[in-house]
Amino acid sequence: MPDIRLFDGxxxxxxxxxxVTGVTVVTTTDDEGRFHGVTANSFSSVSLDPPLVLWSQxxxxxxxxxxxxxxxxxxxxxxxxxxxxxxxFARSSQEKFAGIDVDIGSGGVPLLxxxxxxxxxxxxxxxxxxxxxxxxxxxxxxxxxxxxxxxxWFSATADICWLIPTIWSTLDNRRIASKLxxxxxxSARGRSSVSSANSTRRWRSPSGALTVxxxxxxxxxxxL
Length: 224
Ligand SMILES: Cc1cc2nc3c(=O)[nH]c(=O)nc-3n(C[C@H](O)[C@H](O)[C@H](O)COP(=O)(O)O)c2cc1C
Known about the structure:
Number of domains: 2
Strand order of the largest sheet: 3-2-6-9-10-5-4
CATH topology of the largest domain: Pnp Oxidase, Chain A
Largest sheet: 7 strands, antiparallel
Shape: globular
Distance between the termini: 50 Å
Bound molecules: flavin mononucleotide
Strand content: 35-45%
Number of strands: 14
Order of helices and strands: HEEEEEHEHEEEEEEHEEH
CATH architecture of the largest domain: Roll
């Protein structure tokens, strides 16, 4: 490796941006019970057993002191029709949750509706990572809907960050599903298996337990 860095922050962003990610809104609550949330694409899985995930937050952001103190956070993995939510939670504002219906998770942490999936986590470590803090959380509850996820990609040629619906949405999902034999691909666009807030849902927890629960995730129609 050369001693002198031959790239600047802009170059690094462009290179990192070629790694396509999903988009999440990480949420928590403060001591007074106020909701906080930030758009984050630094989310990543860490371990299945125990179930661990991480995300990182810029130290200079307004909500950093709140997240740093919080014992819990939730990762809301945005669906392809939630671009507006990703923009809303990327801006500093006291009003991020205004007019949004949320479910309340354990510890009072708000959970966004209409997401592709949600994970509720207990913080197990806060690791300094340069100008960011890395939060590692143990996952204690999960749920998901068959909404296709929103994707983020940085185009170096256009020098612009794209938020795009998943590419599957432009294809015939049923045709792909029959090839992949995947239940997740099996629903046609707009025909989610979550048709109402009262739907019954089954999933396996990371520990392997099969859970059947009335779905807390709202349908696309409820969000809009
Ligand atoms: C697509 C996208 C991904 C982002 N990912 C992160 C991230 O992983 N970590 C982070 O600290 N900020 C990230 N941001 C910026 C934060 O969303 C933004 O700084 C934050 O919402 C500011 O809110 P606050 O002032 O209430 O803290 C991202 C923004 C966008 C648009």
